[in-house]
Every structure is written in C-alpha cells, then in structure tokens.
Amino acid sequence: MSEPASRDAPADLLARWQAADAAWRGRGVRYGVATREQVAAKSGLEIFQAMIAGELPAPPTSQTLDFMLVEAEAGRVVFQGKPGFAHYNPMGTVHGGWFATLLDSALGCAVQSVLPAGKAYTTAELKVNIVRPLSDKLPFVRAESRIIHTGSRMATADARLTGSDGKLYAHGSTTCFIFDNAP
Question: Which pLDDT score, from 0 to 100, does residue 183 have?
Fold first, then answer.
C-alpha cells in the first residue's frame, strides 16, 4: 500500500492548496517565455524564484494545462495542477499525457534547480506510473520532485503526484542530459 502524501488531513491540504492557487492567480500571472537576456546570468533556482515571484512569465503550457510552479529550492520543486474536464480522454478521466506533462515539468525543473547559470538540460528518459485515475472531482494535485543524482553530464530525479485528498495518483522518474547553454 502506498504511503499518504502528507500527514495533514485532506481538508487542511485542500485549504492550503486553494490558498496557493488563489495567491498565484491573484498576482495576475503573465504567460510567455523569458528572453535569453532575462535568464542568462541566473541559476536554475534563481529563474524559478523569479517565476514564483511573478518577475518572469509562467510558461504557456501552464495556462493550457492549468498547473503552476508553487515551490522551488535547490534539488526540489513542487507544481500544483487542477485536473479539469478539458484534460479528459475518451474514457472520461484525465488523459495520461496530462499526468506525464505535470510530472515531466516537476522532474526537469528539479534538475534545473541545481544547475548554475550557463547550464541547461534536456530530458533523455521519462518514466511515469499512473496508479489511479483522476477526474475534475479532485480539485488539486501536486507533483513534488527531488533530485537523486547530479553529475557534470547527467542528472536523475523522481517525483510523486498526490491529490488534495492525500492519495498517490502517479509517480515518475527522469534522466536528463546536462549541457552548456551558450548564447
């Protein structure tokens, strides 16, 4: 049996996650892609801190798929998403691609959070295990990812996708290539 996502009661989790969603949306989020000049001197973690603070735009996919970066520290990031009807597959549940995109975002960003300015990454491998279906009846999920290993050329991370009900919905892992991101 899987362990719960948190020791918090589901009502407490939901209240905290609703507050995070309201605060994020209340900032008047801009969507777009930061310019090279805006990020050139920033580490991966500094980029994410600027996104969370609203100083850099949130990526367009965040708007399309209704998820957001809510926490970032070196080696750990958390994304929060709202599974919606627009994400449904023909079977009437959230499409596996939505799970995969949310997990891939968290996994890659955990890797980027430990990279210095001038370094970038790309996903070499993504593994996703969906352990239960999602629907729009669950208001929020969070993908929390942590770095496992960082070398000079490769990094690995894992992530868990949990619901505001405290249940595990999916988990995943990644291997990423690290390279110089010269202008």
Answer: 63
pTM score, whole prediction: 0.91
Rounded to the nearest 10 degrees, how much is the dihedral formed by the CA atoms of 128, 69, 97, 156?
Answer: -30
In terms of Cβ atoms closer than 10 Å to its own Cβ (0-12, 13-18, 19+), residue 148 is middle
* Selected residue with higher pLDDT from 21 and 67: 67
| Owning domain of residue 138 | 10-180
Tell me what pLDDT residue 3 has.
Answer: 44
Edge-to-edge strand ranges of the sheet holding 168-180: 67-73, 76-81, 141-150, 154-163, 168-180, 119-130
Number of domains present in the structure of the chain: 1
Concatenated DSSP letters for 20-36?
HHHHHHHT---BS---H
Residues 172/127, Cβ–Cβ less than 8 Å:
yes
Answer whether residue 180 shows pLDDT above 50: yes
User: For residues 171 and 158, is the Cβ–Cβ distance under 8 A?
Assistant: yes
Number of H helices, E strands in the chain: 5, 6
CATH code (residue 34): 3.10.129.10
